[in-house]
Amino acid sequence: MRGSLWQLGQSITRRLSQADKKAVARRYFASEADLKKTVLFNFHVAHGGKMVPFAGWSMPIQYKDSIMDSTVNCRENGGLFDVSHMCGLSLKGKDSVSFLEKLVIADVAGLAPGTGTLTVFTNEKGGAIDDSVITKVKDDHIYLVVNAGCRDKDLAHIEEHMKAFKAKGGDVSWHIHDERSLLALQGPLAAPVLQHLTKDDLSKIYFGEFRILDINGATCFLTRTGYTGEDGFEISVPSENALDLAKAILEKSEGKVRLTGLGARDSLRLEAGLCLYGNDMEQHISPVEAGLTWAIGKRRRAEGGFLGAEVILKQLAEGPSIRRVGFTSTGPPPRSHSEIQDEKGNNIGEITSGGFSPCLKKNIAMGYVKSGLHKAGTKAKILVRGKAYDGVVTKMPFIPTKYYKPS
């Protein structure tokens, strides 16, 4: 699904308010019967969730509160997201690490058991097939989550390379966790609320770490991570236990943690300067251009050995021709595909994500500009509906991250 989640929600709401509501509803929801539903679908509807099609799923864009209020509440208290549309899978076997390192830029071998990292699946040209959080559970077990909209191509890509790897005697197999649901609990109340539901000491689990533990009576995969810039967790829970867990989290928070939809999720990740695949990263954009050089392991920079390594290592040595940067701007909020110009009116790039920040109360955006024009403080013009507005390159994240790390 291309375009920001916020724009999707606004587009549907705006069009439904116009003349022929039945025709618009048919256009957006004609295939509703074909959409996949998470096990929390009825729970979302009962809580006022506005359901929209997203990557083949019926997902809540927002609830009874506004996207603005929901975004702010996540940062002040907490948000609970149903992200069961995303695809979790495990790779197992003594060669699972060496297999995965052929496909991603991370130093998987260098991860300690129980730790993970953000990585990128690359193609032969060094472009990004998808981004993913991967965790080394044990030396022979890797757990990873890929984006819903990329599921089919990711699984086909992994399977193709796995067949070739196994044909050469490699020991690796996979399991796709369609029997599990995925919840994301984010915000300052995430840890205190979740602590009520487990005997394990969450203060000993830091950002990027993974545990298999009992939460609310179910065996869960717990990763201290998220997509908001806040402290929080992603919880892979057996689907038959997902509804009880969601209810327990909301109950233990005494109403402060709210169900939060895809609209606020998009605002939160943009404020945190995080990429949305299909907007800020695509198959023609390399991890270096996307500002994810830090995700390329030191050993991988020396050895290569992943798809597109030659292109990426050359960019590391010589510098990329374009770079992802942040912007603040005046006027209407920039949107995906808004043209970026220098002060003389020359095209220097394009916005990939943008909107009004509910927490900062100003326009923020990210996009790609020519190298040399990427320094913070560089002035630019951003075209919105054909009119140029002042913009300035701004360091990301726009809002400081609050990841839980050792002090």
UniProtKB/TrEMBL annotation:
One Pfam family it belongs to: GCV_T
Residue ranges with Basic and acidic residues bias: 336-345
Principal location listed in the UniProt entry: mitochondrion
Organism lineage: Eukaryota, Viridiplantae, Streptophyta, Embryophyta, Tracheophyta
Subunit structure: The glycine cleavage system is composed of four proteins: P, T, L and H.
SUPFAM superfamilies: Aminomethyltransferase beta-barrel domain (SSF101790), Folate-binding domain (SSF103025)
Region (Disordered): 326-348
Natural source organism: Gossypium mustelinum (Cotton)
Name the UniProt record assigns to this protein: Aminomethyltransferase
Family in the record: Belongs to the GcvT family.
Record function comment: The glycine cleavage system catalyzes the degradation of glycine.
Matching NCBIfam families: gcvT, PRK00389.1
